[in-house]
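Archive transcription. Copying these from loose printouts into the bound notebook so they stop getting lost. Printout 1 of 2:
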Amino acid sequence: MGESQAIDLSHVADELGLKIRQVEGVMSLLDDGNTVPFITRYRKEQTGDLNETQIRDIAQRVDLVRQLVERAAAVLRLIEAQGKLTPELKAAIAQAETLKRLEDIYLPYRPKRASRASQARDRGLEPLADRIWNDDPELGPLESAAREFVDPAQDLPGTAEVLQGAADIIAERISDSTDLRERVRSLAWSTGRLSVSVTKTGAEQGQEYRNYFDYSEAISRIPLHRVMAINRGEDASALRVKFECDRPRIERVVAEYFEFSRRRVAGFLTQCAADAVARLILPSLQREFRRELSERAERHAVDVFAENLRHLLLQPPLCGQRVVAIDPGFRTGCKIAVLDDCGNLLAHDVIFVTGGPEKRVANRQKLAGMLERHGCNLVAIGNGTACRETEELVAEMIAEDRPDARYVIVNEAGASIYSASEVAGEEFPDLDATVRGTISIGRRLQDPLSEQVKIDPQHLGVGLYQHDVDPKRLKESLDSVVESCVNYVGVDLNTASASLLRHVSGFTQRVARHVVEWRDQHGRFTSRRQLLDVPGLGAATFQQAAGFLKISDGDNLLDSTPIHPESYSAANRILNRLTGETRDGRVGSPDLAALKPKLTELIPNPKQLADELQIGAPTCRDILEALARPGRDPRTSIPGPVFKQGILNLDDLSVGMELTGTVLNVVDFGAFIDVGLKESGLVHISKMADRFVSSPHEVVAIGDVIPVWVLSIDHERRRVSLTMLKPDES
């Protein structure tokens, strides 16, 4: 099992509420180079049927444990090199369960930059500090003891300087105490607050941060999105942030911990404790707490982005529909692209939403003519500049010329970036970038997943504070979401672009390009086994990828299902058992349609059949489900977009009016809803349910179509507040 044998996985299992064999099974598979999607779907017996989130949690937690083990080994070596490693210290390092505890243990031995304490030691004051610290009964009055160390040559002209140096050494010892620091940390956290005030710059230019101009909240309760906002305001020099806590109480805890009240020089030591708390411990903990809060907030922001991205990518495709896509614009006009039901470009043109009545009618009729000529009745409008004016023109066109047509607003975030990308250039080498972007808008409606994987997820407009988080962490998280979504849905091997194929389990960009090149040279794939003919695609890659790549109308019907080739024998035995015929997988869909009732009946309790076939029950269940629903796209169970025929104005609204809206984005404080206005409405988290909601993600997701009611209308700021709670009909 590789490295995982060197660490104790029982803590990980306990923390995640799993069995140790599940954690060991997952880590063995990961260490052997298997991907998370492959393990999730095709190694359920080894993992105990864990889902993808659980597997990623295990990997993340074990990675932290491995970091702890590596750091502990490094700390042991560093302390041993100083000749200060004792059996007790070695045991304490071995028992440290967190990096924080480990660093507390190492703190007294960590090489320090020049400090007041180190300067005092260099001047020879450590013996005096030792006598005071150890409560030497022969010490006598401090003034007398200090006179022995007066030395102008050492910059110690009098007893005051000597005692100050000794106090500095003692303060550092107090600060370096491992167990004390843990107690103080707990108390500082429980009593700590972030106090935020406005700076001169903020008062003049930072109105976006006005909610935090006079703000204070306990650090143990502050919402993470507020941490991100405060950090951003501080970075912009608009906000001043201070950490406050119960310092007098902490000073008492320190004095009591060392029992200073029983010492001969209790007053002096108590002053040392106060200095240690104010000058060393609390500033260090403040940095630690701010860093920890920021780290948590970053992780949360990344998680929110990832959750939103998953729902965005898994929006249902618009199968078998031609689309007219419009990229709105004023000066250079609105670019139009007509796409067939496969997303191929049929025609493109430009219309204008500006000009007099005659030009408006001409542009409206030009658009209607394009719909008529190409047999389209669906229009996709990008939500960028001039979207509202374009929507008005399309609504007029529907009312006057094409009453059978409908339209929908499409999020065009990232379309311009795609249009200038190398991928777009390869797809449409002879087209202007503006036309490429328009095609992308239409294809996002036809197949959101296939189109949006071509764009860096950071540019898809569904994140919160994504520009304030670690780019590497964000990229890793979003890449894993894209990988998860692509493999969850599956990929048509004969139509998928290299941009989509590169996210298939086990594939790289190079392998994806080789697959497309092979397809261009030899024609469509008729069997999954042909993948082994692709240069650079060996048996290991085939194993990881094959089950996620589908072939319609191929030599073997099983190639169109998510059944892995390694399970074809079991699938054929199931078919043999149900039909009494010998089959090799080359079966027609009518056979499976006739068998669906029998297959469906077996799905809830597959164990007996699995035992007879000598395969695992989870694998048997998956085979039965795949045979019962061949060609199923899991996205089709999700409600599609809401198409409109007319436009809604702010003046049309009234408080209490019921509307149907589509969730555009989900953030910590609520969700933004498209109800047909130029401006999206906001449902605050407090208006999502008649119960406490800790996160909006518990209630809604991007793409959800929900009923909402108008709560308030701010005509001046053009804002609409919505509620998901039906008003009292009484």
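Printout 2 of 2:
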Amino acid sequence: MALPANLSSALAESSLEQGEKVFKRCAACHAPSDQNKTGPGLAGIVGKTAGKAAGYNYSPGLASSTLVWDEQTLDSFLQNPRKLIPGTKMTLSVPKPDDRQSVILYLKSLTEGQ
């Protein structure tokens, strides 16, 4: 049974707000823009090839990767970055599946309109 549109929209908004909260942990290293910090800026990341943002010095594993950041690869990376990309500089993981899905929704919102 499908959810009514207004309920589905409310759930998505709630999840987006949760994603923004979860992203605050990420913001120590990543900006929600194209500005690089300790980690690369994440605006527009969904749909892009991993390790290719201009001006950021990626680990060799990520720089040579052919991964495309979609919901599945982001979920795997956020769950265990070093399992997906051995040698990555990223150490923070997002262990809770709901938090990962929310932050992925937030990252997708940073891609819209780009």
